[in-house]
Amino acid sequence: RKEVEQDPGPFNVPEGATVAFNCTYSNSASQSFFWYRQDCRKEPKLLMSVYSSGNEDGRFTAQLNRASQYISLLIRDSKLSDSATYLCVVKPSGATNKLIFGTGTLLAVQP
Amino acid sequence: EAQVTQNPRYLITVTGKKLTVTCSQNMNHEYMSWYRQDPGLGLRQIYYSMNVEVTDKGDVPEGYKVSRKEKRNFPLILESPSPNQTSLYFCASSRMARDTEAFFGQGTRLTVV
Asked: Could you give the CA distance from residue B35 to residue A53 in angstroms, rounded to a whole number?
């Protein structure tokens, strides 16, 4: 089983739609969680951290469910510019030096 | 502008011909690492460095070497490249190892024939 699993998609949604991605992780002791965004053929960039209490940044909401070991990302009012691959990233407990990446979920927002 | 710079961006080489991919950051970050990204496998850590002269293996270190003689530079060396090292490579840095945000270079697409 992969340490971090994501549905690869693609998720094809119209502009203005709400879309949600989930990600599951296998290590129950993992301590930190993030969503990174990667545009086609470009480098990953931090989108947002994911906190136990959930957090929101504009149209983006991230949530963590430790009991079920999954994190989610909700995008409201999708824009064409949201089209990208969204990477779920986990930092294991005790490992100060490693980020474990999911394979990513591809989002394509259609006009 | 704060950035991580990799060179070259694209490289096609032949099996066995030694090559170096350079990585430089201008943010005075202590922690640097190399990843490779392959379809269906995500980004996997090759090597990392906690500070100058401190390096260690990541998850997929075989066939690679690194050095950290200066804080800003962290080159990736392939002594004898093989076709299975064809991949997209990213260098990343963060202020400290425990920092949550990693800044990535633009990537190097390597093809070994």
From this structure: 31
Mutate to test the interface with B, among A43, A51, A64, A85 (most CBs of B within 10 A): A43
Q: How far is A96 from chain B (nearest CA, A)?
A: 5
CA A27 – CA A7 distance, rounded (Å): 18
Of B43, B56, B106, the CB nearest to A101: B43
pLDDT for B15-59, tens place per residue? 999 999 999 999 999 999 999 999 988 899 999 999 999 999 999
- What are the chain A neighbours of B107 within 8 Å (beta carbons)? 41-43
